[in-house]
Write a structure and sequence with these properties.
Layout lengths: L2 H9 L6 E7 L5 E3 L2 H6 L4 E2 L3 H9 L1 E3 L5 E5 L2 E7 L4 E7 L5 E5 L7 E6 L5 E5 L6 E4 L4 H6 L1 E3 L7 E5 L3 E7 L5 H5 L10
Parallel strand pairs: 1-6, 7-11, 9-14
Antiparallel strand pairs: 1-2, 2-3, 4-5, 5-6, 7-8, 9-10, 10-11, 12-13, 13-14
Amino acid sequence: MDDIVRQALAKWPNVPSCTGWLMLDRRGNWRMRDEAAQASGAPGAQIRHEALLGFINRNYEADEHGQWFFQNGPQRVYVELGYTPWVVRLSAHTDGSLALHDQGGGAFEPVAVFVDEDGGILFADHSQPARVAVLHDHDLEIFSDHATLADDGSLSGTFHWNAQLTLPLQSVKRDQVAARFGFVASPAAQD
């Protein structure tokens, strides 16, 4: 968390939190949701300002209930999640190694791989509790280049992570991901 945010929290500790105004979509884009977007269920306008994106990513955390928020100075802005609290991009380097980075640019080291019923790929890392991230759909080809799938069409198989680690593909139901990994996709303010 930024020092300026800590200072604002100390100065104004009782600012009410808000919900509905910020969304992390399925592709890792931060979106501002005005009243019209909230009323219609639309994702809202994509935030493109680099300094603001950096500020959001540095001050993005979860509360004790698994609700993710952006600490905007003294105000906690709860985040609507398009799927998971993290979205990762997969890249392959010329030496054959792979890298995963979350929407804020941080490295993500997978210890488990899941496939939902729609073919969505999710990674879990080693942190406790485990962070779960959905793979950006533009990276499915890279993923498939490093996966071995079963011939029975079951979406089972293995993912080969940097030659030293083979991870089994585990099945997960999309509607059970939040409960399994302890997060709330659509939080309510906790004032």
